[in-house]
Specification:
Elements lengths: L1 E4 L5 E4 L4 H28 L5 H16 L10 H19 L7 H29 L2 E2 L2 E4 L2 E2 L4 E6 L7 E10 L14 E6 L8 E5 L3 E5 L7 E8 L6 E11 L1
Antiparallel strand pairs: 1-2, 3-12, 4-6, 5-12, 6-11, 7-10, 7-12, 8-9, 8-11
């Protein structure tokens, strides 16, 4: 039996043949294990304390923005999504830790402040879009075919929640067969909102062109009267391709 000492606080007692070698292996194992625990503890410390609250706050603000997101065209939300995504990414970098020695003392508060600011901007932008953003609505037109001078009516099944209505109509030949000249290039229409007050009609509009109507204080379904102008003998198909409310 042999006993090896490495200081006042560490003793290895071994018995039998080859005991010194066993003692060396044991010390090596303890050294490696202790080093791994030390590294893990260091990493845990860098992911604790005041690193987490800003991250949780940023994620919370982003979650509220997602929950309260209104329905509308995706293009108007692009800058809001970008602000929220960048804020979460910056906050996560802050949680993981910023290398750089003394420079990290400057980058940490800068990342925290920037991520929180972007999260607030994203949430504020979402609330603005909920109150003033563009809303896609469904509109139907009847009849769906018309000739020169025919009057059609577009009905939007939605109470005005914004100041303006934008409509876009498509006009195509009803009969595509045959060798006769196409009527679509020369077709135009005049549109006027029913009960639109003193607002004059929009005239000379062609297929695919947008027309705007100020809605005022109306609280009923929105109705628009459309009159087609086309060469005699032409029969046209008319459809609503875009209908949206906006401020």
């Amino acid at each position: 039996m042999t006993e090896h000492g490495t200081g006042d606080n560490f003793h290895v007692r071994t018995d039998g043949r080859g005991a010194p070698a066993i003692g060396k292996v044991s010390r090596l194992f303890l050294s490696v294990f202790a080093g791994d625990v030390s590294d893990l503890t260091g990493r845990a410390k860098s992911w604790s304390g005041w690193n987490w609250p800003p991250f949780v706050l940023v994620v919370g603000l982003g979650s509220i923005a997602l929950i309260t997101a209104p329905v509308g065209p995706a293009r108007q939300f692009q800058w809001v999504w970008a602000a929220l995504a960048i804020s979460v990414a910056m906050s996560f970098v802050r949680v993981v830790g910023v290398p750089g020695g003394r420079r990290s003392a400057l980058w940490r508060p800068l990342l925290t402040a920037s991520s929180l600011l972007l999260a607030v901007v994203g949430l504020t932008g979402m609330r603005y879009l909920a109150d003033h953003g563009e809303i896609a609505v469904t509109a139907r037109i009847s009849p769906s075919t018309a000739t020169n001078g025919s009057t059609l009516q577009v009905v939007v099944d939605s109470a005005p929640q914004r100041a303006y209505l934008r409509l876009r109509l498509s006009i195509d030949d009803a009969d595509d067969a045959g060798d006769r000249q196409a009527c679509t290039p020369g077709a135009t229409y005049t549109a006027q909102r029913v009960g639109g007050g003193d607002a004059g009609p929009a005239t000379g509009k062609r297929s695919g062109e947008a027309v705007e109507f100020r809605l005022g204080g109306s609280r009923d379904d929105i109705r628009v009267r459309v009159t087609l102008t086309v060469d005699e003998g032409c029969e046209m198909k008319i459809a609503v391709t875009d209908a949206a409310l906006h401020d």
